[in-house]
Amino acid sequence: MTQTQRYKYPLQLPQSLKETAARLAHEDGVSLNQWIVSAVAQKIGAVETAADFMKAHAGAARRGDLTRLLDRAPDAPPMPQDAIKD
User: Fold this and answer.
1) Is residue 2 one of the residues assigned to a domain?
2) Greater confidence, 72 or 18?
3) Structural contact between residues 28 and 35, judged by C-beta atoms closer than 8 angstroms
4) Distances from the Cα of 68 to the Cα of 2, 40, 71, angstroms
5) In 29-80, which residue ranges form alpha helices assigned H by DSSP?
6) How much is the pTM?
7) Residue 65 forms part of a structural domain
8) Residue 40: which domain range?
9) How many CA atoms within 13 Å lie on the side-chain side of 21?
10) For 1-53, what is each residue's pLDDT tens digit?
11) Cα separation of 29 and 32, whole Å?
């Protein structure tokens, strides 16, 4: 999709969420539509950035690696101050 192509999507929001978004859009000096587009873009960026980060740092890790590591961990906290008090 190019910048000039736009698609309509019927969005249904709870009233309280719509009112808050409208207030924030007004405070930012933009239309509600523009504010929602920006919010969706920010969320997409955050999710994709997190996914890319995880992929880059996972290395050769495989499902179950963490479980095996945790199975070798002691059942007691390593430091007395880490203990959960009743």
Assistant:
1) no
2) 18
3) yes
4) 47, 38, 5
5) 32-58, 65-72
6) 0.59
7) yes
8) 15-74
9) 18
10) 566 788 899 999 999 999 999 999 999 999 999 999 999 999 999 999 988 88
11) 9
